[in-house]
Amino acid sequence: MKPMWKPAALAVALPLAAAIARAQISTGATPVYHGTLKIVRPAVGTLDKSTGIGTLRVRGWRWKLKEGSNGIFPTREPLVVALGEDSFRLDAGSLTPSRNRKVFRYSAPHPGPRAFRSFRIARRAGGSYLVSFTLIGLDLSQLVMYNPVCENLAVIVGDDDGFTGVALKTRPPFSPHVAIPHPCKPPAWPWLNQS
Known about the structure:
This protein has one domain (25-194). The chain is 10% helix and 44% strand. The chain is built from two helices and twelve strands. The longest helix has 16 residues, at 7-22.
């Protein structure tokens, strides 16, 4: 005799199947869901004016996922931080979760000349995230000639991104001290035209 589904069991099974279908892990870092990234406090860094290469440290910027996103899986999806034409990538599995799996971290034991020194993402109440990272070996050569420069900055995890325009500048002008004090109207984020 074939087992029959009872209405109560079916009521539980259908939402569970729908949730599993929605929670798809992305193996690439190609954004489909375009969220927002908010500058909570200024980013700071340094610039070698002879090479145009610098560092950038971002602390506690707020990333809100796009409504309808299937969520992010920081331990199982690749991660990219892109500033203008420059980008840095961490492969899936690079981030280590905290015990409660609300905070995910990466710290480079021996960072090379161009790398993430660190990355941290923390899930907050209401579904937003706080993002912090330090990049070294970043191409900041535009700041040798121009001040400020408005660039796109994006954090991408799997098929989700958070992006904003950033006013990248040296303070005082044309010094080795880099800052992102506030947003600016960004150039068109290239992924927006592909969704």
